[in-house]
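Page 37, top half.
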Amino acid sequence: MALVTVASFSFPHEAHIARAKLESEGIPAVLADEFTISMQWLYSNALGGVKVQVPPSCAQRAMDILSQDNSDLLADEFEPE
């Protein structure tokens, strides 16, 4: 089955965060080019970064989830008391 790339990141740790977010929402996701870029990080731009890929049937929902801005959820954590 062909997978669809829904996001790409310069560094593997960024892609892992996105993959974990998708999986927490029930969307199966895999990373492409993760190990190559881990070993040769200078190749990241040439390869198009570490890609987060999902099944085609989940692609639109995955892009919607990844485009959400949830930074307001942390606001209370960092406000002085």
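Page 37, bottom half:
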Amino acid sequence: MEHLAPLISQAAQIAIEEGGEAITEDVLREAASFLDT
């Protein structure tokens, strides 16, 4: 569960910045790629 917290936090930040109302699969993928770097 502790590994999901950074992913979900990053995904939420991306969704907010992009004006989205939900964390979608695309947003999760973008967050995962950001965290991999």
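Margin note: The chain has one domain: 4-36.
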